[in-house]
Write a structure and sequence with these properties.
The protein is of the alpha+beta class. Helix content is 51%, strand content 14%. The strands form 3 sheets. It has a 3-stranded antiparallel sheet. Strands 1-7 form a two-stranded antiparallel sheet. It is flat and about 65 Å long. The two termini are 31 Å apart.
């Protein structure tokens, strides 16, 4: 027998789980700007806001990873003999034929789940290429939030351990 409160679950309201993720590589590179002047200038921390993904978004990323091979073939056909140009264009978007499916999915996950700043797929690819540890940090935090699910707004039942909850 399950102790799952289905009635309470059905009534619950859910909100996205989100958090701020400081990115040390982008900070050290000065992409957040600097405070102070000259030798006393210190980099301003770069912080991205991320959220957990939904089941639909996870499935979309799977589909997009599968579609990247199809897009490459279509682009080659449209470009005719300019196959290298088409491959270069798609590779620039993180969708080349040599891009592992797992990376294509992760690129898509990060692009969908970064709330602020809003990133294009090209931005995510550049971060992954130039700052792989920052990219990894973003993806780890996104997957942690996704695994925790949304925040449920539910009424808590009294534990029975306080005076106020005891029956007289």
């Amino acid at each position: 027998m399950s102790n799952f409160d289905l009635a309470n679950f059905r009534k619950a309201k859910f909100q996205e789980r989100a958090e701020d993720v400081p990115l040390s590589g982008l900070t050290a590179a000065g992409f957040g700007g600097f405070e102070g002047e000259g030798d006393d200038a210190k980099p301003v921390p770069v912080v991205f806001r991320v959220r957990g993904l939904t089941a639909e978004e996870l499935a979309k990323a799977d589909q997009e990873a599968d579609n990247s091979k199809l897009l490459l073939k279509v682009a080659e056909q449209l470009a005719g003999t300019e196959s290298e140009r088409a491959q270069g264009l798609l590779s620039g978007l993180g969708l080349g034929d040599d891009t592992p499916k797992a990376l294509a999915k992760k690129l898509s996950h990060v692009q969908m789940a970064v709330v602020s700043p809003q990133l294009k797929i090209q931005d995510v690819v550049r971060i992954a290429d130039a700052y792989p540890m920052d990219f990894l940090e973003l993806s780890v935090q996104i997957y942690n939030l996704t695994g925790q699910g949304k925040v449920a707004q539910v009424k808590r039942k009294p534990s029975g351990k306080t005076q106020a909850s005891r029956q007289a």
